[in-house]
Amino acid sequence: MAAPLSAAELMAHPAYKHAIWDLPPTTKGRATVGAGRGGPFQIAYEIHGHGPIRIAWIMGLGALKTAWQRQTKSFGHDQADRYRCLIWDNRGMGESDRPLVRYSTSEMARDAVELWDHVGWTQDRGVHVVGVSMGGMIAQELALMVPERIASLSLVSTAARLVNTTSFLENLQQRINLFIPRSLDEQLHLNKALLFSRSWLAAADDEAEFPTNGDHFAAQELHKRTGTGNSGGGADTGTAGTGFTRTGFILQAVAAGWHHKTPAQVRRLAARVGRRRILVVHGSADRMITVPHAHTLQRELDGEEELAPGREGTTDEDADEKIQCVVFEGKGHVLLWEMRSEFTALVEGLIARTEALNAEGGG
Predict the structure, then answer these.
(1) Residues 342, 333: Cα–Cα separation, whole Å
(2) Under 8 Å between Cβ of 32 and 45
(3) CA of residue 236 relative to chain centroid, distance
(4) Are 265 and 159 contacting, i.e. CB atoms less than 8 angstroms apart?
(5) What's the pLDDT at 171?
(6) CB of 156 closer than 8 Å to CB of 138
(7) Is the confidence at residue 103, as pLDDT, over 50?
(8) Do strands 127-132 and 278-283 pair parallel, antiparallel, or not at all (unpaired)?
(9) C-alpha closest to that of 257 among 167, 111, 134, 92
(10) DSSP letter at 266?
């Protein structure tokens, strides 16, 4: 098995400049959000496709909207007449502003609501929401804030709250590793190990652009980490750049770490959105957010967790329904890459079912 390409080798590779695909958006812009919440500041967004079915894709910790490029292409370009995809850089990353305030998943959800208002996505049951990792946490907050707007809710590699499911020392080491300054090659090695299964990393590149899948991910990660957002105006000043900054990452990490939804809140979320509209997807070998988090989320969404004494449940007309939960054995954290075809089929299936519910006037 060939050794992974180094950062220098990747940047010299002929496919490197194309690692971020050229996917021209139908519309792009910057929405002003956060007035009265530490702002105003601006969120950079793109809309791909012009179809009637609207999908909001919410990215995770430290990642850019371009990390959705496989889904953007599949839904917003290959099926542009059917779908309309909204992607954006969460506050602190990419082309969005980096306000130097405390971040939380609820505040980032409010950013999203104001962005939806800006682009006119205000219809009841009008938005299919897909959130991965921290993006899934933001999606949970959205489901509690504006459940009437949500047509379907896909929660990918995420948790209602983070708990320690590994040994104390392993958990501590993983958290510390996120913040230790490292060389580019060390960063790439660590991120690959945390985010993907070894077998997928070593396999030939699914897109046939680089030697391996791991090399393709590393090339895209290099684009993020060497973007102009890392130096000069906007790097850590609260204004926008184009890439990744340590300050933005830390602020987002605080938001993800402090995300906490109780069993009662999760049950209420499921009741308001409707269990038939919810999908939970996870990899059994996820090292960032381990699979027990998915099992807990599934039980609580299904209403199987006991409520605290003295707390009443929410009236739930589809209490007998169950959410859809899929766990991919041996797969890692970034299923939208590692299980692209299967992930696409799951999202399309949920959208088709919930669009049918909408047509029937169902909950």
Answers:
(1) 14
(2) no
(3) 23
(4) no
(5) 54
(6) no
(7) yes
(8) unpaired
(9) 134
(10) H
**Count of CA atoms in the C-beta half-sphere (13 A) of 155:** 33
Q: What is the DSSP string of 128-190?
A: EEEEETHHHHHHHHHHHH-GGGEEEEEEES--SB----S-HHHHHHHHHHTTS---HHHHHHH
pLDDT reported for residue 321: 87
Place of tokens 């959130």: 131
pLDDT at 2 (0 to 100): 76
Kindly state the tokens that stand for 120.
């006119």
Q: What is the pTM of this model?
A: 0.91
3-state secondary structure of 323: coil
DSSP 269-310: HHHHH-GGGEEEEEETT-SSS-THHHHHHHHHHTT-SPPPTT
Angle at 205 between CA 338 and CA 131, to 5 degrees: 25
Measured CA to CA, the distance from residue 323 to residue 280 in angstroms comes to 8
Taking the C-alpha atoms of residue 182 and residue 203, their distance in angstroms, rounded to an integer, is 26
Q: What is the mean pLDDT of the chain?
A: 90
**At 28, which amino acid appears?**
K
Which phi and psi angles does 32 have, rounded to 5°? -85, 125
